[in-house]
Sequence to fold (142 residues):
Amino acid sequence: MPNVSLDELQGAVDWVSSDVLDNEAYVCRQSGRVFWFSGDGGMADEEDIIPDDIHDVGKYVLVPDKQYLDLGITLALDFAAQYLAEQYDDVRNIFRRKGAYRRFKELLHRRELLEKWYAYGEEHTIKALEYWCESEGLSIER
Fold:
């Protein structure tokens, strides 16, 4: 089972989850190497060369985004249910408008829960990536 660097995989998930470009990242099923590139043909690391067969699902697996892994709004609402139960409806309303994460973090800062949120997110991200890797026949290297 090939090993994938946890740090690199977390970076790839952030890369494909960004709203800036049509970013993609793939993990080689044999080596565990991660390839990152943007929809405009640019590369995250200009020294990388994207293999011609990158879309061969037998050789490479597309890195999922945060929404696919339930690490977006779902995670924030789960956190709110656990740590901000009395303000849960307010948090749900925050996520109905633009700039939601900024406002959510401001609320957490006021409630002195920002560090707890970061730890919660990190813990759930690692679990989600471990589960995803296992389902794809990969393992995480920490």
